[in-house]
Amino acid sequence: MKMLINVAETVVADALRGMAAAHPELTVDVENRVIVRRDAPVPGKVGLVSGGGSGHEPLHGGFVGPGMLSAACPGEVFTSPVPDQMVRAAAAVDSGAGVLFIVKNYTGDVLNFDMAAELAEDEGIQIAKVLVNDDVAVTDSLYTAGRRGTGATLFVEKIAGAAAEEGQPLERVEALARQVNENSRSFGVALSACTTPAKGSPTFDLPPGELELGVGIHGEPGRERRAMMTSREIADFSVNAILEDMSPRNPVLVLVNGMGATPLLELYGFNAEVQRLLTERGVPVARTLVGNYVTSLDMAGASVTLCQVDEDLLRLWDAPVRTAGLRWGM
Amino acid sequence: MLDADFFRRWMTATAASVDREAERLTALDSPIGDADHGSNLQRGFRAVAATLEKEAPQTPGAVLMLAGRQLISTVGGASGPLYGTLLRRTGKALGDAAEVDAQGLADALRTGVDAVMQLGGAAPGDKTMIDALVPAVDALGESFAAARTAAEEGALATTPLQARKGRASYLGERSIGHQDPGATSSALLIAALAEAAGE
């Protein structure tokens, strides 16, 4: 497998050095792996800190900036960051108004952020946490790790980020983040496995004529394997899986997200099918975002996320944002 | 009696063994996880070995507490907090005694394993590191060698189980038929304990 890297051990550090060079509006601490908006801490503003394994770019570092995250902590590839990173990030962005940790529901992320919250609170920083768990492919029960956090992370970070930017207090920003998560559902498909730098070969074996339905974003297989389907059939399967789990009465935000190796030509075509289905099912669409936002290295495939919004959430979604990976209105 | 030097040897032996077996751990993690268990633990235990070389804690408890803190700060993922907690809580339970006997270690390790179960919410049979650690602790009263065998058998016995915790749980029934990487690395930790004891 050919990769544009030096050695697997330095992949994350190399990417952070490159990110620092490309984005002088960010403070990138390569050694400690923390990406912070340059003007932090912003007086009176709640800090938003997210993080997770690397390999999902632009998530999360690409979403640091005015209107979205205050800081991000990238871990090793597909491995959650360590508590030291989160504590450092929280300290860098706390203006005294408190910090919200946005955590995707994976055991590692949850445990490390929990430990970090304890340590940060010991340092006198007020911490709130929101868990993102939007993936309908995973059953949630007492006997499982619960649903994965995937595409809804972007909606949570954007909308909570806008609320924080307006100067809303920690409890309100946290409540909004929770509401966005509860209003969101996702489903993902893989047309190929991905290759982690450490392993150097595909993480699972997917024959050319087959696809995986219900995948997450870590190169793990999904819940079901089938013969390759058309874009229309994949959209049917994905959207139906989501609508089995939610019945939107309000308009929805739509994220048609690429997993890293699927070109926009295909993603836009897939979006056409998703929009057709939503129209057929009577689900009004408020806004649509198509692109590679929550990726899984070089995995081919896509995910769909729907988030039901009221006027307030839509206003916050439309609010200006200026980050490396998402930018409008400023 | 087991002194601080014994515990340093245990940690160093674990680091060497994780180094040797990193590729196998990652290969086990590939079909049901995200193919990084070996490289993550390798990074962590290398840091543990390096730290113990620089600082020389004087008591068994201090050795394990320092090792646990290093793992939490360097591994990430679920393995960092879980292994970190295992060693930290075991070390804490050992207190500041200069030497401990085998029974003292067995009792402390049980405290550590209980803390891991509480943190990760896993019970025996969930296809996790617990499936190697619980039988190992049970057998530790007998001998270090018995603990090693029990841990290895516990790891092998995870193969037919369906994962209910961690990333493998997202696969549901598809996790069946694969040996759990976490239980496998836990068996390495216990094997290194037997090695440090010369068994």
TrEMBL record, chain A:
**GO CC term (a single one):** cytosol
Specify the domain of life of the species encoding this protein: Bacteria
An annotated Gene Ontology molecular function? phosphoenolpyruvate-glycerone phosphotransferase activity
Q: Which GO terms describe its biological process?
A: glycerol catabolic process
Q: The DhaK domain covers which part of the protein? A: 7-328
**Cross-referenced InterPro entries:** DhaK_1, DhaK_dom, Dihydroxyacetone_Kinase
Pathway in which the depicted protein is active: Polyol metabolism; glycerol degradation
NCBIfam families this protein is in? dhaK1
Q: What is this protein called?
A: phosphoenolpyruvate--glycerone phosphotransferase
Q: What is the lineage of its organism?
A: Bacteria, Bacillati, Actinomycetota, Actinomycetes, Kitasatosporales
From TrEMBL, chain B:
- Asked whether the UniProt record includes Kinase among its keywords, one would answer yes
Keywords from the UniProt entry: Kinase, Transferase
DhaL domain: residues covered = 5-195
Q: Its Gene Ontology molecular function terms? A: glycerone kinase activity
Domain of life, source organism: Bacteria
Q: Which GO terms describe its biological process?
A: glycerol catabolic process
Q: Which InterPro entries match?
A: DhaK_L_YcgS, DhaL_dom, DhaL_dom_sf, Dihydroxyacetone_Kinase
Q: Does the keyword Secreted apply?
A: no
Q: Name one GO cellular component term.
A: cytosol
PANTHER family from the UniProt entry? TRIOKINASE/FMN CYCLASE (PTHR28629), TRIOKINASE_FMN CYCLASE (PTHR28629:SF4)
Recorded protein name is Dihydroxyacetone kinase subunit L
Gene it is expressed from: dhaL
